Amino acid sequence: MTTGKTYFISGANRGIGFELAKHYLEANPDNIVLATARFPASATALNELAVKNSNLHILKLDVSDEASIASIDSQLKDITDGVDVFVSNAGIFSESRGTVLSTPAEKWDKHLKVNTVGPILLFQALYPYLTKRVTKKVVFISSVAGSVASFNPAFPTDSYGLSKTGLNFIAKAAGAELASEGFIVIAVHPGVVSTERGTKTFDEIKADTNDEVAAFLDSLMITPEESASFLSKLIDELNEEKNGSFLNYDGKTLPY
Ligand SMILES: NC(=O)c1ccc[n+]([C@@H]2O[C@H](COP(=O)([O-])OP(=O)(O)OC[C@H]3O[C@@H](n4cnc5c(N)ncnc54)[C@H](OP(=O)(O)O)[C@@H]3O)[C@@H](O)[C@H]2O)c1
């Protein structure tokens, strides 16, 4: 019997998603990794990884496009009948450091579509595949920026923050809805991570703040490899007690 599991990771052509895909391929040659990219042809690093790993499958997916989400079923059918772990990682933080009053409709819509509604619709599409396995783990990569209890006025990230608050709510709601079916659904903050996007964002925040806050942010920074390693440990160790929780990458519970 195989010891491997099947992992579906959205937004895996770069950043945390890419490192997670790489991590699972290295962790066990029996793992199957289903990694999505909006533009597979230009996902160079992922394509290079696929050349060396026949158990890596690259799927085309734009989570802001319903037709693209619907196409996941036909893309998956020939590869696998089941998925053990769904990591909803794809997300944007697009010029998001606005305030409630200054953020236009288009920015609220964009963040909600990619960071909240897209992951929900993708979960709906993957549900039949997750029910085929006993593992049934669903991990929404969220952000501490979505924690209402930890709201920090020093970092106004309103449309991004709202979209991740919504995602946290969905983890709680889906966890409750599907607990009796054996699902474990969580939201997780992956850390302050030095991906290209993370570094750019935190440099912008630091430029607007004082040395003390900037030094604090620097002290929190971890690499994408470290984040992926922490996340995979957390995902491996998930049990039903964690269902519906919002966790830090190191496993500590975060307040909603
Ligand atoms: N980095 C941090 O410090 C940090 C902190 C808290 C939370 N997070 C969360 O962690 C996750 C990954 O962050 P990251 O730093 O690795 O970001 P990243 O390097 O910008 O990567 C984001 C990934 O999401 C994909 N993506 C964006 N829009 C998409 C769409 N409409 N459909 C499908 N895929 C899409 C991107 O694809 P393309 O290459 O095609 O754009 C890319 O693969 C995000 O959900 C983010 O909010 C990150």
Mind explaining what this structure looks like?
The chain is of the alpha/beta class and 256 residues long. The protein has a single domain (6-193, 223-248), classed as NAD(P)-binding Rossmann-like Domain (Rossmann fold). The chain contains 8 helices and 9 strands. The protein has helices at 15-27, 44-52, 66-77, 105-130, 158-178, 196-207, 211-220, 224-237; strands spanning 6-9, 32-37, 56-60, 85-88, 137-141, 184-189, 192-193, 221-222, 246-248. The protein has a 7-stranded parallel sheet with strand order 3-2-1-4-5-6-9, sandwiched between helices. Strands 7-8 form a two-stranded parallel sheet. Helix 4 (105-130) links the parallel strand 4 (85-88) and strand 5 (137-141). Helix 1 crosses helix 8 (224-237) and helix 3 (66-77) packs parallel to helix 4. It is globular and about 55 Å long. The termini are far apart. Bound molecules: NADP nicotinamide-adenine-dinucleotide phosphate (NAP). Residues 10-11, 13-17, 38-39, 61-64, 89-93, 114, 141, 143, 189-190, 192-193, 195-198 line the site of NADP nicotinamide-adenine-dinucleotide phosphate.
Secondary-structure blueprint:
Elements: E1 6-9, H1 15-27, E2 32-37, H2 44-52, E3 56-60, H3 66-77, E4 85-88, H4 105-130, E5 137-141, H5 158-178, E6 184-189, E7 192-193, H6 196-207, H7 211-220, E8 221-222, H8 224-237, E9 246-248
Parallel strand pairs: 1-2, 1-4, 2-3, 4-5, 5-6, 6-9, 7-8
Helix pairs in contact: 1-8, 3-4, 4-5, 6-7
This protein binds NADP nicotinamide-adenine-dinucleotide phosphate.
